[in-house]
Amino acid sequence: MTISSYFRRMARYNQWMNAKIYAAASRLDEAALFEDRGAFFGSVFGTLNHIMVADTIWLKRFAGHPRRFPSLVPVKSLAAPESLRQTLHDDMGSLEAARRSIDAIIIDFAEELSDDVCASSLGYSTMAGQAFENELGLLIAHFFNHQTHHRGQVTTLLSQAGIDVGVTDLVAMAREAGMQ
């Protein structure tokens, strides 16, 4: 498996898991969605919102790559989050709709990647204004790892609320989709 094919698989896994997480979260009433459960970002909603914030930040950075990925053109018009805790959407319905849209963009972006592009560099600045330059592939790996980390927190929060998300393994998604 090449790095670019791995990222295509991770993009599909991201979409698959987000669909499962949002379906499970929809079983909570609004008070339970927003209840502070002691996680890094408080609630189930807060954690799902944070994943969206971070995805937006990173996709906007990826859109600045010299390759000028056509899939990321819509991301350029999104407002840049001002903090990692900024609420991008006030309710679960609009957050979920935005999530589906971003997940489709992530899949299209992954389809544009090649191993050569993944080996190239990307210069970017943090929210604190610190400038960095890293290999694009490393940054994309971080992007997917960050999503998985926080979705793991959401599955724990949901489990504590009595909701089972089901199987979350990458290999289960691959088997379900008939992938090798």
From TrEMBL:
Cell cycle is among the record's keywords: no
SUPFAM superfamilies xrefs: DinB/YfiT-like putative metalloenzymes
Keywords: Metal-binding
Keyword NAD: no
Superkingdom field: Bacteria
Pfam families: DinB
InterPro entries in the cross-refs: DinB, DinB/YfiT-like
Residues annotated to bind a divalent metal cation: 50, 146, 150
Molecular functions per Gene Ontology: metal ion binding
Family to which this protein belongs: Belongs to the DinB family.
Protein name (database record): Uncharacterized damage-inducible protein DinB (Forms a four-helix bundle)
Species this chain originates from: Dokdonella immobilis
Lineage of the species this protein comes from: Bacteria, Pseudomonadati, Pseudomonadota, Gammaproteobacteria, Lysobacterales
